[in-house]
């Protein structure tokens, strides 16, 4: 009589079956416990190796700024801001797709890592390394490495959750493992952790990840679901739900033709902005427009109060690159989870990439000075025309409104239009109040938004539902 291995919880030979998970947990736990014991005993051979590795790497890294920048960029991938965003977006995607168990598993596993890191550090109480030429700063105790622990747990949990949707699983798993190793290596190379700190972080992360994965398997078994091997992911039958965009339609038809049209439109948009900026810089001094430009900013300066200074600072930061990036990432994630199409995401991405490049190129070419009034912000190196804060705010909220107005049927869709008007208006007023822009800089930002977003809408048609791949000709 044939036996259904999936139903019985048995895995084919060579696969990590559920029965091996408890042994793996015990082995990792013993390894971590021994490492904690060795560090607590301050054994001289271990201390010599730890300090020697940190000293040698510091001698290699400290004289090379490019290497420091590369290591710092890599280590940020294991920092809490990046991992919190990854977990939040993934959990939101799972909840929208009604995969509550996977979302709970992801959030609970991440929360456990956040609790383990400070508690174990306080228990061991090891100080951080002292190097001759410091290139990075980190606070708190050293053992274990929070970056190594967090990256192992977060990227490992994301791997287990989304593995069913991956085509080349071995390659994807190897890439995730390589990223976790690279993050750990950067902590030692930057001189903020010993080698044993990173090893302990990896072991503790793998231990916690194994425990939660085994608990999830037991949860599924008690609910009457078949238990598959871990190298198929936590929930293999959810492969369609965890895919970002299950449909196989092309986000941009005739890609090379569209790329040529978009590039041509970018050049014409830049040309128009440059001509307007050149005229404003060189042909308005002494005219009514020049007097109006300076007069509005001077009048706003007379209204300054401590309260308005704080309010304008908040509004101004709503157009900061970090805020705009956060809004873009959150909206793209939600759009991908709800609409299951790449076309709206491509529209938003191209909108913001085009805005940034148009602003930087125009500002570098025009080189218009800031208004002749005291500024509340630190001096800026870029040109006054066009306003990057205002242009970025306009582009992202107008793009969001364009997508929502055609895809959402409820009356709440008009709320997106209100935001597309109110938020940029507040940013524009605050920038002029703080003395960083003329009113005509706002005009440049509005022209950039209208030309660029209108061009992309006309070329990409972001609200058109593309035909599936199997019926396209």
From TrEMBL:
- Domain of life where this protein originates: Bacteria
Q: Which Gene3D superfamilies match?
A: Phosphatidic acid phosphatase type 2/haloperoxidase
Q: Where are the transmembrane segments?
A: 20-41, 102-120, 148-166, 171-192, 198-216, 262-280, 321-339, 346-366, 386-405, 412-430, 442-460
Q: Which InterPro entries match?
A: PAP2/HPO (IPR000326), PAP2/HPO_sf (IPR036938)
The Phosphatidic acid phosphatase type 2/haloperoxidase domain sits at 102-213, 345-457
**The UniProt record lists the keyword Protease:** no
| SMART domains in UniProt | acidPPc (SM00014)
Pfam families linked to this entry: PAP2 (PF01569)
Chain intervals with Basic and acidic residues compositional bias? 232-242
Q: Where is this region: Disordered?
A: 230-249
Q: Which UniProt keywords apply?
A: Membrane, Transmembrane, Transmembrane helix
Q: What is this protein called?
A: Phosphatase PAP2 family protein
- Please give the organism: Verrucosispora sioxanthis
Tell me the lineage of the source organism.
Answer: Bacteria, Bacillati, Actinomycetota, Actinomycetes, Micromonosporales
